[in-house]
Amino acid sequence: MVTAEFDPLRDEGDAYAERLASSGVPVEHRRVSGMIHGFMQYGSLVPEVMTEIDLVGARLRKALA
User: Fold this and answer.
1) Which InterPro entries did the record assign (predicted)?
2) Domain range spanning residue 11?
3) Whose CB has fewer CB within 10 Å in the chain, the N or C terminal residue?
């Protein structure tokens, strides 16, 4: 699960990740510094976003293997 530092929904995302973890659901939560809500759509413009997209893809491939 990825949240952004300057996302107005960040706290809700953090709380959701905590609830999943406390319920025994495997979850990895990353908060990306300096980013805003919807930042993942800017991969072609912001190199740091591509790093996050690659990481999410790697985690999904591992989980679905």
Assistant:
1) AB_hydrolase_3, AB_hydrolase_fold
2) 2-64
3) C
Over the stretch 4-49, which tens digit does the pLDDT of each residue have?
A: 999 999 999 999 999 999 999 999 999 999 999 999 999 889 988 9
Task: Check residue 44 and give its pLDDT.
Answer: 86
Question: Residue 28: which of 37, 18, 38, 41 has the closest Cα?
Answer: 18
pLDDT at position 1 over 90: yes
Distance CA 52, CA 20 (A): 21
CA distance 4 to 54: 16
**Number of domains making up the chain:** 1
